[in-house]
Give the backbone structure.
Amino acid sequence: MRNTARITTAVLAAGALTLGLTACGSEKDAASGTSGPLIVAASPVPHAEILTFVKDNLAEKAGLDLEVKEFTDYVTPNTATEDGSVGANFFQTQPYLDDFNKKNGTHIVSVVDVHLEPLGLYSDKVGKAEQLKKGATVAIPNDTVNEGRALQLLAANGLITLKDGVGTAATPADITKNPKDLAFKELEAAQTPRSLEDVDAAVVNGNYAIEADLKPAEDALFLEAAKGNPNSNLLAVKEGQEDDPRVKKLAELLTSPEVKKFIEDKYAGSVLASF
């Protein structure tokens, strides 16, 4: 964003003195205030696509000036929200957000749940999970929450057994039974779809699956169940910004019937509205 200059003129009754004050603001100033465009950090697919739909079809009528800034990792959107470089972000789940805040001392809070991207197991080598050979290598995301979520998915489908109560904090060390002696390759989440040529199977986040031209509803060996799933993707802001009128408008638009229809039509079950 270009720096902008604001000029304020104060007319003093005593001498009709005019004082012009010019202030140059940075992107950070615009993002952290309550005027100007709302800059939202987002993963390219489907988050930025959903935001772009809102920007192109709903925002102007609602009086919202929306700017979408794309990021391909799961760290920068939160650090940028924390330091005020952006006004909000849209890319993560509540468990991931809670873990990120705890580990990084950040103060990011959820505004509204928008959609679920089912985590899935994919393979270029086999057509069914039971066809995985003994000693097969499975790639999984290496960040705390998504790794635990991936292992829970494998456990729910009978490939492994985990210690009771580990939840999304699970790591390979928490596996109590591994009848196929699966080996796990821990990778950055964005790298998991690219690893399919080198591993026997990979657990891939829904957004990265779609970016890699995978169709979760068709290509996954199995997917997370949507019912009762705590992993909806959410709009988030730095604590204290929840009442920003721009954020409230965006939250309303992201959970509108128009956005629900867009999600259903565009993603055909690979992304599911959470509202």
Summary: The first strand starts at residue 4 and ends at 12. The chain has nine helices and 15 strands. The chain has a mean pLDDT of 88. The CA atoms of residues 241 and 247 lie 8 Å apart.
